[in-house]
Amino acid sequence: xxxxxxxxxxxxxxxxxxxxxxxxxxxxxxxxxxxxxxxxxxxxxxxxxxxxxxxxxxxxxxxxxxxxxxxxxxxxxxxxxxxxxxxxxxxxxxxxxxxxxxxxxxxxxxxxxxxxxxxxxxxxxxxxxxxxxxxxxxxxxxxxxxxxxxxxxxxxxxxxxxxxxxxxxxxxxxxxxxxxxxxxxxxxxxxxxxxxxxxxxxxxxxxxxxxxxxxxxxxxxxxxxxxxxxxxxxxxxxxxxxxxxxxxxxxxxxxxxxxxxxxxxxxxxxxxxxxxxxxxxxxxxxxxxxxxxxxxxxxxxxxxxxxxxxxxxxxxxxxxxxxxxxxxxxxxxxxxx
Length: 337
Hints:
Layout: H1 2-29, H2 34-42, H3 56-66, H4 72-84, H5 98-133, H6 138-152, H7 155-167, H8 190-228, H9 231-238, H10 243-281, H11 286-295, H12 299-327, H13 330-334
Helix pairs in contact: 1-12, 2-3, 5-8, 5-12, 6-8, 7-8, 7-10, 8-10, 10-11, 10-12, 11-12
């Protein structure tokens, strides 16, 4: 077990090194650096990407201020040293600490994303179970079409469809696009506040859940059908045991293992989806912050979000591996993924 933990730790450190190195390198290679943005603002420009124009002395001063005058390795080492000391720097757009900027957006992002995640679990796994039990039936065929559509259509495309339908009045009476609350709650009764949040969160939650739900349903169905063909299932059924009893006592535990292995990837899926879903629904969360920071070349915030995204993704994979170890002790011995 100790060797397994050490190997996982080495994988975590290597992954963080690779992700941060790649992200840091991209911020230095992309056009429109903070130096160019600052020079354009001082020269009366719009701040959009353009060649640097202006006083060369001022440009050099800005390069030194942002640390761009140092070699790439020195810049990266200095950034890592600051991160280790808990210094993420300040936002170039708002001059607020990066951690404060990100922390203020986390609750806004977690509310719809976690609700969508648990909705995917609560619907996807039972749906896959029912599809396996009633395979080759009309229900299985119709739900297969729905699952394939859910898997193929990105959440933000579904969000755009919701926006269009709400715009012509089809959904506007039940659901509300735009943020997760109206914000005008000072003199509003509690039940009205709750109803407002539910109506605004319904569309984003469905958009977050749809892809994960489809993947879980398909994975659960495939894993259970594989278990149905094993010898122990045939033996148990030949003894007269009810099918549902055999499934819930034996097959389900074995079938859930590959499903657990994929749960960690959902953390990555939900974070990636948040960039587009939050933009579509005007939710001021981490996804919107990431989008605005890239457009505004706010590299300290971009790098902070990349690091947090990597940590969340790695944590999700470690959690899924821990669940696998608990479900199948044999994995503890081999140390396999």
